[in-house]
Amino acid sequence: MNHATQGQKIFNVFNIILLTAIALCMFLPFVNVLAQSFSSSLAVTTGRVTFFPVEFTFTNYLYVFSDASIWRSFAVTIYITVLGTLINLAATASLAYPVSRQEFVGRKYVVMLVLITMVFSAPLIPNFILIKELGMMNSLWSLMIPGAISAFNFFVMRSFFMQIPSELIDASRIDGCGELRILWNIVLPLSKPVMASLGIFYAVGHWNTFQSALYYINKPSLWPLQVKLRQMITTDDISIDPSASQFSDLAHSSPEGIKMAVIIVATIPIIMIYPFLQRHFVKGLMLGSVKS
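Structure tokens predicted for Protein LplC:
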């Protein structure tokens, strides 16, 4: 039985202390925000809230849940997350499948073009002009179509597709299957792990959509949750929705607690889902990294 040396024990203790400190640096700010969201306006304004609520209240959440504009932004975020993820997976699979097959002529050039986009990304102004010329300004399509294919996710999916035996594809062609049918009935059912993993990557990206919406969406009714949150944090006039008028005095006197409540509402869904999907994130990073 191997016993750890004194140096190894010291190293392990140092690692535990370091990682614990890093974890606390990430976790404690969230606890502080959570405590402020359940604290009174006076307690938040005077800076008396640390890691526990002071003068516990649900008023901030009552405001958030009564503001129709927040729920509208929440619905927009869910919409672009679900539909955008489906578009991402469909587009990525449509490109990755033919490039993964040896018989596809010119596949090396396609891979090279995709690789170039990973190294050299287009600047903001050309992107803005392109979106404007395509007529997608103030449209939710501008948040889903331009980033339909991620170069990194493309390479991961391509590597997975390359591991599917060519004999299986050839047998399907002999049976009279076209390429679309092979992709839909053969390849995709065998690719559930990679589809689930990349779906998570895409979904998290859409849920956190901010910059694209800030550039391309000018209508408050189309703001996703992150942009709505930014608007509420950067302005003191939070009560902009008529349905939340009964809380207007609270919004004008001390909006800090309301801001913290909105942050929690925007963050909790991902925090609740992530522990159940963490293994897919790890697996998604490993897919295609080892070949036989």
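The longest helix spans residues 68-100.
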